């Protein structure tokens, strides 16, 4: 899939003096049923996360608190997205190498995933990912 298929998605925001609310509905705000939710937190300064691609998994990545950068690479083009709003998600399509870095103090990264965890869905070696991306 081309990098152009990955995009920022504005999520609904209900503003209220008592505190704002944002919600995400599978099949409505993302084009997949949400099968798994996980989040990264307490990431030490200077650390990186990710460093892999998925063969079929689709994801929505949201900075719930703080900020971080998401580096995407489809084997032909690269792009960096800076996430820092809890009402904006980054849709990441399959066959996209991703690396996350530049985590601010106290940041929380939430990921909504289209499938349950499956180790066979991963490319963890960049060279093998590039070979598969070029063959697609």
From TrEMBL:
Domain Sugar 3,4-ketoisomerase QdtA cupin: 5-133
Pfam families reported in the protein's UniProt record: FdtA
SUPFAM superfamilies reported in the protein's UniProt record: RmlC-like cupins (SSF51182)
Gene3D superfamilies assigned to the protein according to its UniProt record, in alphabetical order: Jelly Rolls
InterPro entries: QdtA_cupin_dom (IPR008894), RmlC-like_jellyroll (IPR014710), RmlC_Cupin_sf (IPR011051)
Name of this protein: WxcM-like domain-containing protein
Originating species: Piscinibacter koreensis
């Amino acid at each position: 899939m081309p990098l152009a298929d990955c995009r920022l998605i504005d999520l609904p925001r209900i503003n209220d003096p008592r505190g704002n609310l944002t919600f995400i509905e599978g099949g409505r705000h993302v084009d997949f049923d949400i099968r798994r939710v996980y989040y990264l937190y307490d990431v030490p300064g200077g650390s990186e996360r990710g460093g892999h691609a998925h063969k079929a998994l689709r994801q929505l990545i949201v900075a719930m608190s703080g900020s971080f950068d998401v580096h995407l690479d489809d084997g032909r083009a690269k792009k960096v997205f800076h996430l820092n709003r809890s009402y904006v998600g980054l849709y990441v399509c399959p066959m996209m190498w991703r690396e996350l870095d530049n985590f601010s103090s106290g940041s929380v990264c939430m990921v909504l995933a289209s499938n349950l965890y499956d180790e066979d869905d991963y490319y963890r070696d960049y060279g093998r990912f590039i070979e598969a991306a070029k063959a697609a």
